[in-house]
Amino acid sequence: MKIFIALFAVVVGINAQWISDCGKSKYSDPGREQSTDKFGRVVGGWESRPNEFPYQISLNIFGSHNCGGVVLNSNWILTAAHCVSSGSTTGLEVLAGAHIRSNPHGPEHRSEVLQVINHEKYTDPKRYSNDISLLKLASPLTLSEDIAPICSPRDITYNGETVTISGWGGTFSGSPATDELRYTNVQVWTNADCEGPYPGSIDETMICAAAPGRDTCQMDSGGPLAYNNNGKFEIVGLTSWGRGCALPTHPGVYARVSPQLEWIRENAV
User: Fold this and answer.
1) How far is 263 from 269, CA to CA, in rounded Å?
2) Which residues form the signal peptide (predicted)?
3) Which of 51, 181, 215, 241 gives 20 to 30 Å between its CA and that of 175?
4) Mapping DSSP to helix (H, G, I), strand (E, B) and coil, where does residue 183 land?
């Protein structure tokens, strides 16, 4: 019995930051494929329905959208370290529950960022290794069907799986952010295949994904690469880097979340 209790305590400790009622959309078919592409970005994507991805947040700097991120729980946000590399909270604000940023529709929640915790091995050993950050909110989120946490990833590769990317990123390289939240679906590459277009640049803290004409782009950084596991979205990766946007030869590269579960447990306290 003592062994069981000890093991149970370890499991609870590792998963304490993740909410069990997670990753659910209020729509029955979130991330569905569509036949039209009105504007084109997220590259090759579509406008989402309001709060279709309730874990998605906009990270603002002095009132302007700069990056994406995901809700871990009511007090913490996951994003990319390169979005907040200085570690400063000055001007940082999280906007949760948004759809069209210029036209609030009710469920939005704004919170200043109280603390930025960048991974201590960000850029070690490679330029974008461990590109992950935790943001502690000054005012906790009220969770609902419009603002909800994402699920923890499983310890699998997800190779070949179809995953959903989303964000307010630009419609082409260097363009401004979109007003409406957009998404598309891409497939996960093996890290070995990703080494081809990015020789010497990929490690186990990264995951690659692409589909013809589809990608994340500037200002999607920190946002989700999520797998729909029977109606519950798991956070597989965070938008990190890549060459251009939707180049046929180069997939998007994301910060792989599964190797960071222990780091999240130790820091999101």
Assistant:
1) 11
2) 1-16
3) 51
4) strand
Whether 151 contacts 195, CB under 8 Å: no
Which residue of the set 58, 221, 240, 258 is catalytic? Answer: 221
CA distance 15 to 224: 19
Is 82 annotated as catalytic?
yes
Domain span at residue 174 reads 161-258
Same domain? For 140 and 208 the reply is no
What are 52-108's pLDDT values in tens digits? 999 999 999 999 999 999 999 999 999 999 999 999 999 999 999 999 999 988 899
**15-62 per-position pLDDT tens digit:** 679 999 999 999 999 999 997 655 444 777 899 999 999 999 999 999
Strand partners for 117: 134
Q: Clarify whether residues 113 and 193 are in a common domain.
A: no
Does the residue 41 lie in any domain?
no
Q: What is the CATH number of the domain that holds 250?
A: 2.40.10.10
Q: How far apart are CA 187 and CA 194, in angstroms?
A: 12
- Is 250 in the active site? no
Measured between alpha carbons, how far is 18 from 163 in angstroms, rounded to an integer? 20
Q: What residues form DSSP beta bridges with 229?
A: 232
Tally the domains of the chain: 2
| Nearest-angstrom CA–CA distance, 164 and 226 | 5
Q: State whether 68 and 116 are in the same domain.
A: yes
Q: Which of 58, 65, 119, 131 is catalytic?
A: 131
- Rounded to 5°, angle at Cα 265 from 262 and 269: 155
Whether residues 230 and 171 share a domain: the answer is: yes
- Reply yes or no on whether 221 is catalytic: yes
